[in-house]
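Hello again, I could really use a second opinion on something today. I've been staring at a protein lately and its backbone has me curious. You're getting the sequence in one-letter code plus the fold written as tokens. I'd be grateful if you could look everything over and explain what you see. No rush at all, and the record is pasted right below:
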Amino acid sequence: MPQAYLGSWSATLSNDTGTNTRSLVIKQGRIGDDVLTLVADGPAESGTYHCVFTAPLDAVPNDGGRLKLGPSTVTSGVPMSSCSPGGTSTLTLTSGSALRRVNLETGDSLTYTR
């Protein structure tokens, strides 16, 4: 795992229910280890939600390019019905010390900062 990816990252996104926050932590690990923990919080149609996910490291490129993560797993959620596991994703460091995560199944992306 390249050192530059390690640590805490955060992002916000807005939708029709309001502003949602995302906090992720990337830790050192080997292929198959859970290296990403993501906390998602925000308003829901009837209250709020709090979801915690983990995802394993799937591949580390030799050229320092994108990291590949396996599908995420929901480790806890309130309410659990608001939390759905995610698909395989990639992490890419961008200019300006940001991190972009792209869901390979949906194409959705979100950029995180430190």
Observations:
- The radius of gyration is 14 Å.
